Amino acid sequence: MMLPRGLVVSCQARADNPLHGPHFMGAMALAARDGGAVAIRANGPDDIAAVRAAGLPVIGIHKVFSSDYPVYITPDFAAAEAIVAAGAGIVALDCTERPRDGEHPGVLVRRIRDELGAEVFADVSTFEEGLKAAEWGADYVATTLSGYTEATQPKPDAPDLALLEALTNRLEVPVVAEGRYNTPERVAEAFALGAHAVVVGTMITNPREITRMFVQEGVPR
Ligand SMILES: CC(=O)N[C@H](C=O)[C@@H](O)[C@H](O)[C@H](O)COP(=O)(O)O
């Protein structure tokens, strides 16, 4: 198992974010490592190649947006291949069975393991999706997509601890908590419920959103 127990920091910034680009994401990864992160989650070959310099295991994703399909996190085999070539030892992908421009997630899980020799990190939104992903052979199951699929909307402010607990109670594979874990207390709660690791993104690596939160919640109107 490549992913140690502990805190994973997601270092991602979209094109509209002033911190977009491998230079900034590489620096974020070094900061996260120095702060005690055990692994980095990053998007796309360029950022993945840059965050590798931190020397931690990399959970790679490849976001490919489409106007026709809802699935965008590593939707096909070519996307997975590109991020493994860039240095991701673990490939995260959308394991919901929603329509996608790519292979069925069960096929992707098998091919990523067999043909690319990488571990598979299944991003799911429901208990049933988590069970299926584990059956397909995923190495980790994560709550990443809870709040982001039709079945789980509207998106709550809090993380989906109920889903986390249901999965940790049932599955043998390590379960990872991800999505809206934005305080140390919430991270601690996830470990108490049996999470193997917790992924934190926005609240560590997105200063624009952090600033927005301080302004919205702290500054009188
Ligand atoms: C749904 C989706 O596309 N999630 C993405 C997955 O990589 C990222 O945008 C999130 O930032 C990440 O999951 C971490 O979550 P949070 O930023 O809430 O700590």
UniProtKB/TrEMBL annotation:
Pathway: Amino-sugar metabolism; N-acetylneuraminate degradation; D-fructose 6-phosphate from N-acetylneuraminate: step 3/5
SUPFAM superfamilies assigned: Ribulose-phoshate binding barrel
Keywords annotated in UniProt: Carbohydrate metabolism, Isomerase
The keyword Isomerase is annotated on this UniProt entry: yes
Catalysed transformations (reactions): an N-acyl-D-glucosamine 6-phosphate = an N-acyl-D-mannosamine 6-phosphate
EC number annotated for this UniProt entry: 5.1.3.9
Source superkingdom: Bacteria
Job description of the protein: Converts N-acetylmannosamine-6-phosphate (ManNAc-6-P) to N-acetylglucosamine-6-phosphate (GlcNAc-6-P).
Designated name of the protein: N-acylglucosamine-6-phosphate 2-epimerase
Species of origin: Devosia salina
